[in-house]
Amino acid sequence: MHIWVDADACPKVIKDILFRAAERVNVPLTLVANQPLRTPPSRLIKSVRVGAGFDVADDYIVQQLSAGDLVITADIPLAAEVIEKGGRAINPRGELYTMENIRQRLAMRDFMDQMRASGIDTGGPPSFNHGDRQAFANQLDRLLTANCK
After folding, report:
1. What residues contact 109, with CB distance under 8 A and at least 6 apart?
2. Which among 18, 32, 61, 133 is least surrounded, fewest beta carbons within 10 Å?
3. Cα dihedral sign for 128, 134, 139, 143?
4. Distance CA 121, CA 124 (A)
5. CB burial readout 66-104, b (16+ within 10 A) else e
């Protein structure tokens, strides 16, 4: 298993949880972004800077991904590609994307895009909070525990 992080929009607190988890369970972790990222010194943790452009980081992750890998992303189309390749995906709020829920998430995303394109203010996601951080840590722990057995 390898953990990949769509890191451009990933909250710092989630990255910190991932750094500790990678060390705790001895799993490689790669952050992928369009900008330079700081990572702690570790043989398990690295960052990859990809070129600027739409979906460049996403494309890199999909190309490198192996079945059974875990991807951290809030990008629903990326999560769908990960699932299609046999990977697992969770968002920074701890939601596990599955074959059962990804199509619904894509449809909702497309619907909201259409609403915004027509000028309707749909608002944004709620502020990231302690409950989100805890939900992410719990989901990550479940996935890593299941993988390390």
Report:
1. 76, 77
2. 133
3. positive
4. 9
5. eeebbbbbbbbebbbbbbebebbbbbbbbbebeeeebee
Question: Are the C-beta atoms of residues 80 and 106 closer than 8 Å to each other?
Answer: yes
Tokens (6 digits) for 124: 């944004």
pLDDT tens across the length of the chain (149 residues): 999 999 988 999 999 999 999 999 999 999 999 999 999 999 999 999 999 888 899 999 999 999 999 999 999 899 999 999 999 999 999 999 998 887 777 666 666 676 677 777 767 677 889 999 999 999 999 999 987 65
CA distance 132 to 122: 21
pTM: 0.87
Buried b (16+ CB within 10 A) or exposed e, 14-48: bbebbbebbeebebebbbbbeeebebeeeebbebe
Count of helices and strands (H, E) across the chain: 5, 6
Cα separation, 6 vs 143, in Å, equals: 18
